[in-house]
Known about the structure:
Order of helices and strands: EHEEEHEHEEHHEEHH
Oligomer: single chain
Bound molecules: S-adenosylmethionine
Distance between the termini: 25 Å
Number of domains: 2
Number of strands: 9
Shape: elongated
CATH topology of the largest domain: Alpha/beta knot
Amino acid sequence: MQFDIITIFPDFFTTPLKYGVISKAIEKGILRIKVHDLRDYSGNKHRKIDDRPFGGGAGMVFMVEPIYNALSSLKREDSHTILLTPSGKLFNQKRARELSEKENIIIICPRYEGVDERVKEFVDEEISIGDYILTGGETAALVLIEAISRYVKGVVGKEESVKNESFENGIFDYPQYTQPREFKGMKVPEVLLSGNHKKIEEWRKKKALELTIKRRGGLIEQD
Length: 223
Ligand SMILES: C[S@@+](CC[C@H](N)C(=O)[O-])C[C@H]1O[C@@H](n2cnc3c(N)ncnc32)[C@H](O)[C@@H]1O
């Protein structure tokens, strides 16, 4: 699978992609992540990609033409294009799984006041990662890359660990414990030390459900 990121800060992605399963998947060639400088597609000698908003108001807006140029150059037959915006559809685990089926995802990372509205005519979907405002789309792009890539075959070592995670089957993950068996009077639940796998599984299911009901009032629904 290939991600193409369109950004004015290509260096932003250098360090985060060096860690964990994502970096291993890149090494193995399972994932390809290509970062493109929007200014290379400005179409003008000053590499200008933004301007003041018509009608006045604070800040700068990404112009439509550089983004159009970038998409025209990068888009393939099998590309799926995403614009990151706080007014987009809320991203969730279900969408991450669906998007992992794509061969190529192009992510546009705006900054400042966002993009000229006409950009929206050239993308397949608009995504928000939550009801809050970030400084730019780069952090949101990293969130998408991590969540989607975990579903790409071979990225997460044991496929089991993706299956049991929170949000799968509409419930949170069960509580985990490791060494030591006791810390400041807090003991690991006896059942986990019992070696009885059936009982352990029942206990985990019960705890996962209890947590989901307590935090979300029921099973997690993802539209
Ligand atoms: C400072 S924000 C612009 C916010 C915009 N003026 C508004 O109120 O909707 C700059 C850029 O960061 C990205 N961004 C900010 N919050 C985001 C979120 N919750 N999800 C996805 N992208 C976000 C978007 O690409 C946005 O255009």
